[in-house]
Design goal:
The complex is a heterodimer. Chain A is α/β, with parallel strands linked by helices. In chain A, about 35% of the residues lie in helices and about 25% in strands. Chain B contains eleven helices and no strands. Chain B is about 80% helix and about 0% strand. Classes of the chains: A alpha/beta, B mainly alpha.
């Protein structure tokens, strides 16, 4: 399903994006003169140290927050509120799920009143299969492990069949093993759905392992310091890919870039 | 809610206390002209059951409590939802509500009496006035405490405002609302008894006063005990309803309601 002849189009185009918020009588600049493009169908990783405005950038792209200057276009339309076909996946899965609803009802949340009951059921089943949670539809989130809860949140986003998934450090709270298996699931889902992924993380290796391109966010105020195209073969493999000399070279390069972005 | 076993040691203590009371009165260790022994109170209660008076008075009180409480829940949750969701509503209405809230409901009884006479309406005014506040405060607080992350979720999934309120805000605030409703039910019974003692010549509150004036302490105590039993039964019933409404919520939430 990937690269259906429109690969050159951009899903997001930001030009000179800025975000200032009032803070104790003055204004604080969170994001300044940020420009980036996200191409259709690509896995776009954004890596940055804490305090560089990663979460603010997700909120801007997801239409949950309005930029104070610059232009932000999604699918050719200026972003003013959450754009259609774009869904945000948050880091804090347990607060983002409706704890009183079973897994299937959580996944159905965005479909209610939009599609028929039969279609809802089909999509919920499909989304749960995509994240490897078939058979857990009737469980409640509070009965599941952290990794499984995050899968529920991802399934809820996938059920809407979005063209873009915006993920804000989705695996930051998970243990290394769970994280690795979810990374591989993301690659599989990316492959199967053809959706564009914007994946924000503070984990350099994660950004390289997943990404077609890795943007380095410097700051504060948040700004794209450099964007590195990742030329590693797919499908990627947890052990083999991470041992490749090119992988290690990317790691060194991005590590250095983050250091430069901070001091510069 | 988990099924609770009968608390045998607790019941033994209650029976023991009643026995001590019985013996103290019978032996003359304590002597008041109008302090009956438990056995005499049971006799008084039995007489009230046999004559049917008990059911008439209890039915009136229950009806007033039920009606007043329902009105309080409707008004309190409606206002709480409005003020919880709308900062404009808070700006305009919160000052008035904060002004009214500290006024003791019982101070309204003479006003209600003047307007509505000795009637069920007077009783209801007092019940509703007192019982609305807990529902209102808990609903407003519950709605405002809904995690901002859930509002983000509603937006990124592009739910309509009505869907967000019905599917996210209300269920998230439900544990707090249920707590408010339970506080309010207990208060409704208290206010009904007071209103019946002073403002409406019907019901258990009035019956207690009548037996006092008729110098029938056994019957008076029997009525008092019935009020206590009603309070326990109403609370237990509402706990069940609350547990049903909160099924699915994490156990640590559902259990503390």
């Amino acid at each position: 399903m990937r690269g259906h002849g429109r690969g050159s189009e951009n899903v997001f185009e930001c030009r000179g994006l800025g975000l200032e918020i009032p803070h104790r009588g003055t204004t604080r600049t969170i994001v300044k003169d940020l420009s980036l493009d996200v191409r259709r169908g690509e896995f776009f990783s954004i890596v940055g140290a804490s305090g560089t405005g990663k979460t603010s950038l997700v909120r801007l792209l997801g239409g949950l927050m309005r930029a104070t200057c610059g232009s932000l276009v999604c699918h050719g339309v200026t972003v003013d509120g959450p754009p259609p076909d774009v869904v945000v996946v948050f880091q804090d899965y347990s607060r983002a799920l409706l704890q009183w609803r079973c897994v299937a009802a959580n996944v159905a949340l965005g479909l209610e009143g939009r599609v028929s009951a039969g279609e809802t059921e089909r999509r919920v089943t499909e989304a749960l299969q995509l994240v490897g949670l078939d058979g857990h539809g009737r469980d409640y989130p509070w009965q599941l492990s952290g990794g499984m809860q995050q899968r529920v949140q991802i399934a809820r986003a996938l059920a809407l069949r979005p063209q873009v998934l915006l993920m804000d450090e989705p695996f930051a709270a998970l243990d290394a093993m769970t994280k690795a298996s979810l990374q591989d699931e993301m690659l599989r889902i990316h492959d199967r759905t053809g959706a564009s992924f914007v994946f924000i993380t503070h984990d350099i290796e994660e950004a390289i392992y997943l990404g077609d391109r890795v943007a380095v966010l410097g700051g504060p105020p948040g700004q794209i310091y450099t964007t590195v195209p990742i030329d590693l073969p797919r499908p990627r493999e947890q052990v083999a890919t991470r041992q490749m000399p090119t992988f290690l070279a990317y790691r060194a390069q991005i590590h250095a870039a983050i250091g430069d972005a901070r001091s510069g | 809610m988990r099924a609770r076993r009968v608390n045998v040691p607790g019941l033994v203590v209650i029976a023991g206390l009643a026995a001590v009371w019985e013996m103290a009165v019978r032996s003359g260790a304590i002597e008041f002209d109008y302090l009956p022994a438990p056995s005499a109170i049971v006799g008084g209660g039995w007489a009230l059951i046999a004559s049917g008076d008990l059911f008439v008075e209890a039915a009136h009180t229950l009806y007033a409590v039920w009606l007043g409480w329902m009105l309080a829940v409707a008004i309190g949750s409606g206002l709480g939802l409005l003020l919880g969701l709308s900062s404009a509503a808070r700006t305009y209405l919160q000052a008035s509500l904060e002004l009214l809230r500290p006024l003791p409901a019982i101070a309204f009884l003479p006003v209600a009496l003047l307007i509505f006479n000795f009637s069920l309406t007077t009783e209801l005014v007092v019940i509703v006035y007192a019982a609305t506040w807990p529902v209102f405060m808990n609903t407003m607080g519950g709605v405002m405490a809904v995690a901002s992350r859930l509002h983000d979720v509603a937006r990124t999934l592009r739910l309509t405002r009505a869907q967000a309120v019905a599917n996210i805000v209300l269920p998230a605030a439900l544990p707090a609302i249920v707590v408010g409703c339970r506080l309010s039910l207990g208060l409704s019974l208290v206010m009904a008894i007071i209103a019946e003692m002073l403002g409406n010549p019907h019901g258990l509150g009035h019956a207690i006063m009548s037996e006092l004036q008729a110098m029938q302490p056994e019957r008076m105590f029997a009525y008092v005990i019935i009020v206590g039993i009603l309070a326990i039964v109403l609370n237990a019933g509402l706990r069940r309803v609350g547990a049903y409404l909160l099924r699915g919520h994490p156990p640590e939430v559902a259990e503390h309601v």
